[in-house]
Amino acid sequence: xxxxxxxxxxxxxxxxxxxxxxxxxxxxxxxxxxxxxxxxxxxxxxxxxxxxxxxxxxxxxxxxxxxxxxxxxxxxxxxxxxxxxxxxxxxxxxxxxxxxxxxxxxxxxxxxxxxxxxxxxxxxxxxxxxxxxxxxxxxxxxxxxxxxxxxxxxxxxxxxxxxxxxxxxxxxxxxxxxxxxxxxxxxxxxxxxxxxxxxxxxxxxxxxxxxxxxxxxxxxxxxxxxxxxxxxxxxxxxxxxxxxxxxxxxxxxxxxxxxxxxxxxxxxxxxxxxxxxxxxxxxxxxxxxxxxxxxxxxxxxxxxxxxxxxxxxxxxxxxxxxxxxxxxxxxxxxxxxxxxxxxxxxxxxxxxxxxxxxxxxxxxxxxxxxxxxxxxxxxxxxxxxxxxxxxxxxxxxxxxxxx
Length: 403
Known about the structure:
Order of helices and strands: EEEHHHEHEHEHEEHEHEEEEEEEEEHHE
CATH class: Alpha Beta
Strand content: 15-25%
Number of helices: 10
Structural class: alpha/beta
Radius of gyration: 20 Å
Distance between the termini: 37 Å
């Protein structure tokens, strides 16, 4: 399904180390040539010393589609002073939310072009690789890369994207350069827990999987997702996060595939308090969709576009919802006793907006409304996001808008 037409943490003390299935700034090949990386977090006491070792609660944040249209690429060029591409200023408004988390996950919708370009927006995206640096600067530890645009530039685009992420220490999952890499999640560390992130997409805009590389991007398959989740759990993961590119564009409500698959994934496990999948993070619809707690599994049907240019529904009508999103923030606590699991103890969301300016900037919508009481359009956007996010009873399950 094509995109609509357009007009033209980790904490501050987080360190990226080595773990299976991800990239690292200075990767060391093992016997099989695999490159590994890890995101770990370190807490400090008020006096500045190290806290006692052992499990502790941590925060995990997740955000929606990073979708650099042509005008976003042009803004990055202007922000660099014309000497390159700098996306950091566009994310600066939400950097405190991202870098303030113990673990932050994003969704990289597009693949990267070669150094020096050419770079393109819709319909076949090739983004500047400098996006990866901006994401790590903002505080992200990992990005999923499975989307309907993953094959926009074939296997070469995938390789460039993952190589660029490796170069800045940004872990990734959902697309792969080798069959071995495709079979591994991103493994991340926070609070003493190992977090496994897996990612899948509904399709690739009709572009067939490469004949010689059918593993290049993970496609949605319930049995495979559950098998991968169980393998990650068996391999030591304390928390399993599944990022899924799904849903119907521009539709506030989740479609039947989303509802059915979410329930099937949430129902799988060893029993109460022991699900195979702990969190489901949805992207693709371009607009915010509901959160829902299904059994022990928190599901975000659609986070919305975190960074995008002018967005149009089918036809020539610009839809401001294409620049609205929510940031999901979950507090995860350690096992309460022997044989128990890490569990989500608090669920929150933060409304976001890409201010089309110019300049283009991603903003914490709560703060933007407080500082600009005359912007009735922003106030309406905040109310809409809150209403949609809570539309499937997540409030009764404990979800709140972060103060």
